[in-house]
Amino acid sequence: MRACVFTLGCKLNEAESASLMRGLEERGYEVTDVLGEADLYLLNTCAVTAEAEKKSRQAVARMRKFNPAAPVIVFGCAAQNNAEAFASREGVTYVSGAMRKDKILQMLDARGVAVESEETFCELPMPKRTRTRAFLRVQDGCNRFCSYCLIPYLRGRSRSRGLQSILGEAGACGAKEIVLTGVDLSSYRDGDTGLGGLVLALKDVPARIRLGSLEVSAVTDELLAAMREAGTAPHFHLSLQSGSSEVLRAMNRRYTREEYLAACRKIYAAFPGAAITTDIIVGFPTEREEDFAASLSIVEEAGFAKVHAFPFSPRKGTNAAKLKDIPPAVKAERMGRMLEAAKNAERRYIEKNLKKTFTALFEEDGGYTENYIRVFHESASEGGMYEVRLLGYRDGGATCEILSRVE
Fold it and tell me: Were both Cys, which of 78, 101, 145, 227 would link to 53 (CB 3.0–4.6 Å)?
């Protein structure tokens, strides 16, 4: 029997899906995460934008084209948000939500809808082993309630995984790089242990540790010192969303442009070669042209290594959805300018690092350095860790020469 676990959305979803894949393997299934012919489909959905939810629904139709007779189990944020939109689709046998993914493997033969609201940190099986990167779930839920975001309503309030459980999975996963993931990683806490303490606790794990998305409030001297001591990858995905303090206030982001830039300076002081990557929402309802100009200018001022830009998507149930949306043509024009700025920022960062030496972990389609530059070399093997020197810019990354293999 062949099972397909297809995932949309965030790294936390990927980590959860990897755990379910391991559980299916233990039940005797041949498992893949590539959408294709299978005897059973599990769909882990996303609802962060309207487009993500649409793609989640479309995935059911794609699955049925491969095997109309196979049962489809749907779960995750989009299912939590609108279970009936999936339950009414032909071929869908069971719909769960985002809260209790630990129950999915017990419901492979179940029928119906069971969307729960219980807010506990559910333990999942050890994720499917990988020779390259593994995403390690350490936190779930969110208390921030940004005005545009549905996720706190779908995943519930912030809750953290126990430190010993994390250490057990980290030590046994077999990956050469571990990415700590959560909805709000910055709020991680187990008793007296915060994110800095978690980083230090992982210092002896035989893998490169990388942090997932952070909030400005997490950039403290304690965290940076812990990262230096533990040798954590100098890559900070520091969520921005807008370069305008006025728009940030309307988004309920709880920091200003100046505070964000101060956090960037603090990072660069501790890690001079650090990569700071970010997300920017274009076309928030209160965004004026001068606000958008502030977002454009901060891309260069902050020295971003990569920018993930996406247009504002009103989500019913959020405060921002009550505001008058910006005309689509204006939003599209601004997106064009932001994408160009993002492309230029990425190229500047990569070219600044040419001729420098890094350690790169190679996957199937290229490798990543500790500061998250994508590198290409035709002779590198998947799962190989190499000392490399960057040679030239290529397609959002860099060609490199291999100096030695690192084990």
Answer: 78
pLDDT at 121: 80
Q: In degrees rounded to 5, what are phi and psi of residue 99?
A: -85, -45
Q: Tokens 């993931």 appear where?
A: 181
pLDDT (tens digit per residue) in 82-109: 999 999 999 999 999 988 888 899 989 9
pTM over 0.85: yes
Q: Quote the pLDDT of residue 99.
A: 85
Looking only at the bridges linking them, the beta strands covering 177-181 and 133-137 are: parallel
Considering the four listed CATH numbers 1.10.340.30, 3.40.50.2300, 3.20.20.70, 3.20.20.60, the one that applies to the domain covering 2-114 is 3.40.50.2300
Asked: is 133-352 a CATH 3.40.50.10190 domain? The reply is: no
Confidence of residue 129 (pLDDT cuts 50, 70, 90): low
Nearest to 65 by CA among 32, 95, 41: 41
CA distance linking residue 372 with residue 271, whole number of Å: 14
Q: How many angstroms separate the CA atoms of 264 and 377, rounded?
A: 31
Distance CA 240, CA 230 (A): 26
